[in-house]
């Protein structure tokens, strides 16, 4: 079992603290509903500073969940990984209906699965740089459209063929249950699935239903206080930990805008390590539990 990074296979034990759902380089400035220049992240001196900070915090791995149609840049990820000696795991797949390239609507699920399999086995974007997971596979707000359903089924086919894990996008935390139903109807191995943005889901009963399936769930928008206050994330997370789910939780910040970077007065990627983790510790969460969420669980989830 190896973890497939952009610079080659890595032994799972090599992973230290891992951010499970991030974007380093992507471009949604043209496709986002609001069309704004803020939705573009680049290989830049500002990003270099961000990466130096997380490395100083003991993080050596970033799971990059940008995929086809989001301005994903395999070569830039490779360059960043080399420059900083950072493990970057890239993603294949398609995001959500409003961002799909037009061919996604035309192709069958088998054809879409073929594209994902090729990116995992051979490489992305005419390079030999391989994707290491299928992510972020998304649904729309309060709805899984027909085409999104097809993309989920394609992702499950590619997951069965390659063994690669799947990480999802739940728009503002919604539709986790609908995604779970799709995975179960298609006999996906739930221990290889991680549901994204569950810290934005204020329905703890639904969070528990996802966890009881054996899947991982992610508290991956830490710092996005306009969606939900970190203090609420924290109490929700502690409640799940107290119920014994420490082996199925993973953490991240989901940086998606230039204005999230420290250089532009944002909270930055390191917010997870310099603010949120200390707050967990202050609230009685044990170091050992933090280690599971940041290190052990990502190692287990990402290896195939
Ligand atoms: Zn997302």
Rg? 17 Å
The CATH homologous superfamily: Metal-dependent hydrolases
Tally of extended strands? 13
- The H-and-E topology, N to C, reads as EEEEEHEHEEHHEHEHEHEHEHH
For the biggest sheet, the summary is: 6 strands, parallel
Shape: globular
CATH topology (fold) name: TIM Barrel
Strand order of the largest sheet: 8-9-10-11-12-13
Just give the CATH class: Alpha Beta
State the helix count. Answer: 10
Q: Which residue ranges are poorly predicted, with pLDDT under 50 across at least 5 consecutive positions? A: none
Mean pLDDT: 97
Structural class: alpha/beta
**Cofactors and ligands present?**
zinc ion
Intertermini distance:
5 Å
Helix content: 25-40%
* CATH architectural grouping: Alpha-Beta Barrel
Explain the layout of strands and helices:
Layout: E1 3-5, E2 8-10, E3 17-22, E4 26-27, E5 40-41, H1 45-56, E6 59-64, H2 74-84, E7 87-89, E8 91-92, H3 103-106, H4 109-121, E9 133-139, H5 146-162, E10 166-170, H6 176-185, E11 193-195, H7 204-212, E12 216-219, H8 230-242, E13 249-251, H9 271-282, H10 287-302
Parallel strand pairs: 3-6, 6-7, 8-9, 9-10, 10-11, 11-12, 12-13
Antiparallel strand pairs: 1-2, 4-5
Helix pairs in contact: 4-5
Bound molecules: zinc ion.
Zinc ion binds at residues 136, 169, 196-197.
